[in-house]
Design brief:
Elements (H helix, E strand, L loop, with lengths): L1 E7 L3 E8 L4 E5 L5 H10 L2 E6 L5 H4 L2 H7 L4 E5 L11 E3 L4 E4 L2 E7 L8 E5 L8 E6 L2 E2 L2 E2 L7 H12 L5 E5 L4 H11 L4 H15 L7 E2 H7 L8 H6 L5 H14 L1
Parallel strand pairs: 3-4, 4-5, 5-6, 10-13
Antiparallel strand pairs: 1-2, 2-3, 7-8, 8-9, 9-10, 11-12, 13-14
Helix pairs in contact: 5-6
Bound molecules: zinc ion and fe (iii) ion (FE).
Length: 257
């Protein structure tokens, strides 16, 4: 399975999964159809699956047009999003699996950004390979999604699930927000050497207009303030000793940043 990152709208990413053996493709969160159709025609591949993480328009906006072009495509999403994802046929919950190109992904229920948000995790097939995490707007490179329909407790539980995955997991998040996220991260965790190094790298990459997605889960664990609610520095920044309250206050500070 090969993953191609497509840019869409102003700062969204769509991920196209390609099986070169059978020349089949799947997409994660098609914000719009055009970039997907263009890539599929370059590959000459048939679209067989749309994996949606949640119902927001910048994640499902291309569903309808892709369905029209590929009537046999199957559209996956969370069961809690029933009625909110155009064309949804498969209603997933925690513990379910989905399959593409002989690779099996685990479905993780990760509410918080929205009440129906799910993530797809493809574990490494062989030792030494990377895992692939498609986490929508739950975890971002250097940040996390806003809490539109969920509580801090829910989001901490959801992020804990993602944090428990191995370090060598690639994090395919749905927006290019990394530089701004890390600016906030530095404002609350300035003495973190891994964060300083990462910030310099990301700043340089963005100056060259390069994408910063995917990132690695190992790096997220060391530098993302929204995975580090038990760190004394971050608890001090949030003026709390409680993990959930630390998370909630950091999230509030980020909104005002
Ligand atoms: Zn969203
Ligand atoms: Fe989004």
């Amino acid at each position: 399975m090969e993953v191609t990152r497509l840019s869409a709208l102003s700062d969204n990413y769509i991920f196209l999964l390609h099986d070169p053996k059978q020349n089949l493709a799947a997409v994660v969160d098609p914000a719009e159809a055009q970039p997907v159709l263009r890539c599929l025609s370059e590959l000459g591949a048939e679209l067989v699956a749309i994996f949606n993480t949640h119902h927001h328009m910048d994640h499902v906006g291309g569903n309808q047009q892709l369905m029209q072009r590929f009537p046999n495509v199957r559209i996956y999403g969370g069961v809690e999003d029933k009625g909110r994802i155009p064309g949804q046929q498969v209603f997933l919950q925690e513990g379910d699996t989905v399959e593409f190109a002989g690779c099996v992904a685990e479905v993780l229920f990760v509410p918080g950004h929205t009440r129906g948000h799910i993530a797809y995790y493809f574990p490494p097939v062989e030792q030494g390979e990377t895992g692939e995490l498609f986490c929508g707007d739950t975890l971002f490179a250097g940040g996390c999604g806003r809490l539109f329909e969920g509580s801090p407790t829910q989001m901490v539980n959801s992020l804990s699930k993602l944090r428990s995955l191995p370090d060598n997991t690639r994090v395919w998040c749905a927006h290019e927000y990394t530089l701004k996220n890390l600016q906030f991260a530095l404002s609350v965790d300035a003495s973190n050497p891994d964060l300083q190094t990462r910030y310099a790298e990301v700043e340089e990459a963005r100056r060259r207009l390069e994408a910063t997605v995917p990132s690695w889960l190992g790096i997220e664990k060391r530098t993302n303030p929204f995975l580090r609610w038990e760190q004394p520095t971050l608890q001090a920044a949030a003026k709390s000793k409680d993990p959930v309250q630390t998370f909630a206050r950091l999230r509030g500070m980020k909104e005002r940043f």
